[in-house]
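Handout, page 2. Input:
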Amino acid sequence: MQFLLVFIIVTSIIYNDVGCHADKTDGETKFLVLEDGNMEPTILDCDFNLNDTESFLTVKWFRNDKAIYQWIRGSQPAPIPEFKNDVDSSYESSKDPNKQYSSLALINPTISSTGDYKCVVQSKTDSDTIHKSVQVIDFRNKTLKMDRYRIQNETQLECTISNVFPKPTLTIVSEDDDIVKVVANDPLENEDGYFNASTLAVVQDNDDDIDSYKCVVTFDGYSQNLTFEHVTQSN
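Output:
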C-alpha cells in the first residue's frame, strides 16, 4: 500500500467593520503575524471627535488598562518608560495639530503585544475613548509533524504542533472520508506562553491506493491561508 501525508497550516485574517463615536469600540482587530527581521510599525489610529479642542488636548493610550503612551498638544509625545522600546513616539499621524501624534505606532512586537487597547482623549469640557484589539500570531519556530501507527487492525494518525501562539486548533482531513474517530487534546501552554497541541485520528484503511491526509492548523478568527506542505510516501 502507498501512503501519502500532506500537512497544511491554515492562517487567515478577518477584519470587521469599524465603529466610531464617543466611548466606542472599534470593531477592527489588528492581526500581526510575526516575521524574522525588522517589521514595519503597526499603527493604531485614534479617530476621536471632540467639540472642544481650544483649551488643551491630551491623548493617552492604554494596553489592557495600563498606560503605555501619552501626548499633550504642544509638547513632544512620550511613551511610558516601561514601554519605550514598544512605541515609536516620533510617528506623526496627521498634519492636523490636534491629531499630529495621536496614533500609537507599535514596534518590536512580541506575543505580549496582544491585548485590548484604548485611546483616551480629553479637553477641558469634552472627552472621547476609542477601543481597539490586537492579536499577535507567531509560528516562526513551530514544529509540525504527522506520525502514522499501525495498531492491530487500526491505522492511527497523530498530528502534533509545538511552539505556536495563540492557542491552535488541529484538524486531520481525509480525501477518502475514511476517518472513523478523532481525539483532540487540549493545547498546553509552555513557560514562554506558547502552545503545543496534538490530535489523533483513527482511519479505516482497507485499500491499496495512495491515501492522502491533511493536518490543518487554525487560529481563531482566521481565513486567509498560509500553507506549509510536507509530503511523505511509503509502500
